[in-house]
């Protein structure tokens, strides 16, 4: 693993499931420990219920508002909020309000970044 800086606006970009992801640190960058992506979604974007097998997912909300569920719990989060969605627990969310939402998406161990890369549409 080597030191690097990925400046604002840089990183591989993909459209996946209606959102845009900018990969800041992929699994290969961190020996598979963690991946970090900047995720942005338009108002009304809905991420269907799903589960990350063996992978925790975290969000740090930068802009906008998200609302969703994790297991039996309901949550709402706006700029400055941090969420932990534990592995193997069904969750989903939506972008609420009339503004896009933007969040850092952190997963560990790194798996979801490979799904975004493999199934997403690359952007220039």
UniProtKB/TrEMBL annotation:
Residues 42-107 form the Cupin type-2 domain. InterPro entries: Cupin_2, QDO-like, RmlC-like_jellyroll, RmlC_Cupin_sf. This is Quercetin dioxygenase-like cupin family protein. Transmembrane segments: none annotated. It comes from Actinomycetospora cinnamomea. Gene3D superfamilies: Jelly Rolls (2.60.120.10). Pfam families: Cupin_2. One of its GO terms (molecular function) is dioxygenase activity.
């Amino acid at each position: 693993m080597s030191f690097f800086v990925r400046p604002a606006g840089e990183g591989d970009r993909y459209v996946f499931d209606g959102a845009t992801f900018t990969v800041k640190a992929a699994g290969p960058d961190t020996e598979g420990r963690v991946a970090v992506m900047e995720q942005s979604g338009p108002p009304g974007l809905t991420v269907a219920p799903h589960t990350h097998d063996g992978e925790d997912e975290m969000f740090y909300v930068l802009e906008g508002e998200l609302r969703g569920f994790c297991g039996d719990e309901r949550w709402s989060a706006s700029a400055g909020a941090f969420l932990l969605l534990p592995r193997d627990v069904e969750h989903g969310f939506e972008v609420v309000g009339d503004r896009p939402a933007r969040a850092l998406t952190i997963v560990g161990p790194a798996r979801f970044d490979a799904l975004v890369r493999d199934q997403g549409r690359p952007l220039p």
